[in-house]
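Reading group handout, session on sequence-to-structure problems. Before we discuss, look at one worked example. The prompt was deliberately terse, the way you'd type it at a terminal:

> structure UPF0225 protein BST42_17895

The input record follows.
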Amino acid sequence: MRPTDPCPCGSSAPFGRCCLPLHRGESPAGTAEQLMRSRYSAYTVGDLDYIWQTWHPRTRPDSLTPTDGLTWTGLELLDTVAGQPGDETGEVEFRAQYRQGPRPGVLHERSRFAVRARRWFYLDGDIFD
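And the output record:
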């Protein structure tokens, strides 16, 4: 993906001015929603290092492996609770569309985030059917 391409997170900004600077470590996410969007974008471009680095150390797995044939195709935000500058926790509910081979699918999750060392981290989430 080129920096001038539309950001996968669904904002109206180009990738190079939206999520890419976060992936490169040039700036941290300012809100839980911004972190969730940047993590979605990282999944779409295959940046699993960023996903791992932004996962809270208490809950993150030892390693991450890509899912063969999985392509993320769209993000829809449904709700946010707290997660603003100055908050210690936040929640973001979303639906992320994907294709796995020829089959479409949707991941519906309510993610929880927390601030640690003045940075937002993904804690965990509840997945809905």
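Points for discussion. First: Strands lie at 70-82, 89-100, 103-116, 119-128. Second: Residues 40 and 124 are 14 Å apart (CA to CA).
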